[in-house]
Specification:
GO molecular function, one term: hydrolase activity, hydrolyzing O-glycosyl compounds
Pfam families: Glyco_hydro_6
Distance between the termini: 43 Å
Number of strands: 3
Keywords: Carbohydrate metabolism, Cellulose degradation, Disulfide bond, Glycosidase, Hydrolase, Polysaccharide degradation, Signal
Radius of gyration: 16 Å
Enzyme class: hydrolase
EC number: 3.2.1.-
């Protein structure tokens, strides 16, 4: 590696428990009913461990695409209403942990979707 070489890795963090709560196609692997929030935190911790192993690599992360917008626009769906505490806790945990290792983050909230406007 040359001393002036810069490396960048882009990741997408997308595994909240009961993610995409209003859909059936992308439910994810963790369930809130099956200790999903703690499993999600372990998932985040594993990402942080890998980032720490490569301190010279800049990491840019997209955080939970569609998740918060989906939650807000579908609170009338029982699964979404039941997931709101886990979603908020999970996103906060992910951002705090990733921030601790200097990850640049984009929190996807889809303002146009939430406003139900075409952008």
């Amino acid at each position: 590696k040359a001393s002036n070489t810069k490396y960048l890795v882009q990741i997408v963090v997308y595994d909240l428990p009961d993610r995409d709560c209003a859909a059936l196609a992308s439910n994810g692997e963790f369930s809130i009913a099956d200790d999903g929030l703690n499993k999600y935190k372990d998932y985040i911790d594993q990402i942080v461990t890998q980032i720490k192993a490569f301190p010279d690599v800049r990491v840019v992360a997209v955080i939970e695409p569609d998740s918060l917008a989906n939650l807000v626009t579908n609170l009338s769906v029982a699964k979404c209403s039941n997931a709101q505490t886990a979603y908020k806790s999970g996103v906060i945990y992910a951002m705090q942990q990733l921030n601790s290792v200097g990850v640049y983050m984009y929190l996807d909230c889809r303002p146009c979707w939430m406003a139900r406007m075409a952008c």
